[in-house]
Amino acid sequence: MRILRNYILKECLQPFTLSISVLTSVFLLGYLPQLANKVINNGVSLAAMSQVFLYYIPILLGYTLPIACLVTVILAFGQMSSENEILAMRASGIHLSRLLAPLIVVGITLSLTVYLLNDRIIPEAYDAQTRILQETGSQDPSAMLEPGSFINAFDKYIIFIYRIEGDLLYGVRIYQPSPGKTTRTIIAQQGEFVHVPGKDQLMLKLLNGTSDEPDLRNPNNFYKLNFQQSFITMDLSKKNVKAEKKSKAMTLRELSLKINSLRKISVDPSPLLAEYHRRMAWSLSPLIFILLGFPFAAITHRRAKSANLLYALLFAAPYYILSLACQGLASQNVLNPCFLMWIPNIIALTVAIFFNWRLCSR
């Protein structure tokens, strides 16, 4: 069994190294236009963008490592199946579950690695990128913003933005907590930051929304006021005193503490809950992808690596698309994020267990 285990791991080593290198390089190239735009239009130095570019490597490993596991299993066992090695093993009395056992151990090990990436390494990389980009904050307000994160950089306000396209903000939520009072909430479909010349302030222009306004008879109560256009002045004088981490730059423990603190001031923490459970769910993706790829590779006899690579991407794409869709719904509290973010894992793991059971029981 030791010889068989070592042989399987040896056959997987080369495609894994090649897959993770190629996938990470391709994803890195996709960020070049975005970084070039910051250099050309936002005035960020080339040296700073080079550092930001390098920090994308650990960030992308959270995506490419699980996909590389899937590609590796399909390539390695697809090759073994096409050369009838798996058939010869079964004819020798070796059960397919014995081939799967070392892969499960590797999958668990890599899942723990992805957990470490999601909990520590990737947040630190995001935090390092943020520190570099914060230097451009006074010239470009959008550099301080990140969609899907609670922003505490402005005095008295907590801002959450669902989407940013250029200078336009979409799905803007502004919370104004007051000690011992109900938190005031402003919701707008669109928004835009306008710098106030000569002052350390920003004007936030809001379009088509609702605002909580205090009742003159009872200031502790609010009534909803619809507006087509509204302006809020943001104080920038204290924005760099203690810059708070964005959600992607928080560890899992920091996310948990932030969720509890938002609940105490009656702010909906659904986006942070979605981020927390996304990281936990994605940590299991290497093991799930290995279990998905093994039965497919074992029963096919395809020698073409390009075809096997295409099949691997067809397996991975629905998982990530569904996961991101669930995160979008969870961020808006459509359903409980604690359940919604685990749906892709539940579906993928159910499919993987079913096909592995069918394969091993033959």
Helix segment tally: 10
Oligomer class: single chain
Question: Cα-atom Rg, whole angstroms?
Answer: 25 Å
Segments where pLDDT lies below 50 for 5+ residues?
A: none
Strand content: 15-25%
Helices and strands, with pairings:
Blueprint: H1 2-41, H2 46-82, H3 85-91, H4 96-133, E1 150-151, E2 158-165, E3 168-176, E4 184-195, E5 201-214, E6 222-235, H5 252-264, H6 270-282, H7 285-299, H8 305-331, H9 337-340, H10 343-360
Antiparallel strand pairs: 1-2, 2-3, 3-4, 4-5, 5-6
Helix pairs in contact: 1-2, 2-4, 2-7, 2-8, 4-7, 5-6, 6-8, 7-8, 7-10, 8-10
Give a written overview of the molecule.
This protein is an alpha+beta fold and 362 residues long. It contains ten helices and six strands; from the N terminus they run ααααββββββαααααα. A six-stranded antiparallel β-sheet has the order 1-2-3-4-5-6, with no helix packed on it. β1 and β2 form a beta hairpin. It is elongated, with a radius of gyration of 25 Å. The two termini are 21 Å apart.
